[in-house]
Amino acid sequence: MLTARPFVEDCIDEGFALAGVTPCAPPPRAELLRAWLAEGLAGSMQWMHRNIELREDPTGLLPGAASIICVADRYEPPELSGGQIAAYAKGRDYHRVMKRRLHRLCDAWQKQYPQASFRACVDSAPIMERAHAEAAGLGRIGKHTLLIEQGIGSWLLLGEVLTTLEIAPTPSSEDDPCGTCTRCIDACPTDAIRPWEVDARRCIAALTIECREVIPADFHEGIGSWLFGCDVCQQVCPHNQPKERSKDLQIDSDYRPRLDALRLHEILVWTADDRLDRLQGTPMMRATLDMWRRNACVAAAEHGGDVELQRLIERIADSDDEPKMVREAARNTRIRLSEA
Prior knowledge:
Blueprint (H helix, E strand, L loop, with lengths): L4 H9 L4 E6 L8 H7 L13 H5 L10 E8 L19 H19 L5 E4 L7 H7 L4 E2 L5 E2 L7 E8 L19 H5 L5 E2 L2 E2 L5 H6 L10 H4 L8 H4 L8 H5 L15 H5 L3 H8 L9 H11 L7 H11 L6 H16 L1
Antiparallel strand pairs: 1-2, 2-6, 3-6, 4-5, 7-8
Helix pairs in contact: 13-15, 14-15
């Protein structure tokens, strides 16, 4: 069996903040996934119901896979007040940024071990990334279900390399990162968080990024000004307060924000080309044009004194040519503005 240290060092040399190794096997508590899905907590993310067996046991992703090399990138933390766009989405698309470097690592290891096989994964493969990263010692999963590395926090993006090489695992931690703290649960604007469990039907990130239909009006006030994702649970987490280790940690320049804010007036009249021009190369392309306009209608309720914005909302609310998700959001915002 190979030692983990050279592989971990290669990952750090490639610019990753954290790296570790775990056996390619079902991760701890893999059985909780089926219970979460059975309760309907995945909401509109029907893709979570596919490839359950692979999510529970990743050995099917690469024939003969024996080890998973787990990595984490740290991205730029946001300002701790308000928000429109989740911090991870403001820079270049992390899928491409991480995968490019993981492929370089795979190419180098392939030359070193020509009989072995490697597969790089970043978010798109059906694999329980946080559970494997926790098993590899990159941190511990917190009550908000995100991976927390003590001294660094949870502003982390995860990736993996599956390999047929047998590599000794790196030690994992048994420390509870949360203890009696419930700040993330208490702060969630839509009450989406239970300890170590998130209800995607209520989560602002899921509603603004994954939900491809009408967002229930009950959640509009909680969504507030968020257009794409949400950082509230991370903003209040004590582990994300600046520390010496996190201050000194390198952040890839690709994650530096390319834009910090978007004008609602512009989004409401966007064309497909406008969306592409503003968002191409970022994770924000995940949301369709109709979703962006729907989200902007919801956020417009936070700007009751803006006459121009009110006129746009009125026009959308009264138009039968608008997609249902956009029109219904505008109509609810009109009601909220009239009651303000």
